[in-house]
Design a protein that fits this description.
It is a single chain. The chain contains five helices and no strands. The chain is mainly alpha-helical and 124 residues long. It has a domain of 69 residues: Mitochondrial Import Receptor Subunit Tom20, Chain A (Up-down Bundle).
Amino acid sequence: MATVAELKADDDREPRPSLSHENLLINELIREYLEFNKYKYTASVLIAESGQPVVPLDRQFLIHELNAFEESKDNTIPLLYGILAHFLRGTKDGIQNAFLKGPSLQPSDPSLGRQPSRRKPMGM
């Protein structure tokens, strides 16, 4: 397995793509998710490697750029959760209706995401 120094040396040889507007928005959505989940080291590496501004982008700016809105006053949930919830629900009315009713990532089928129950063998 490669060490961190080896990975860094290999990484320095490869040119990075420019920080396009799309990359800026995607990186910010990922950073918000990483920080929410306390992946602080990973977030710091993302910022360092991508050239993302150290100061996070304003959330309202992100919402405006994505042509989205928040239904909830709880703006502590990362926007990426709202995007995912939208597609898991399978709505067809556009991404602008994806944001956020709170932690709405419960599967539509309640049995999904649960550990299988242990059945007793027959005859017991």
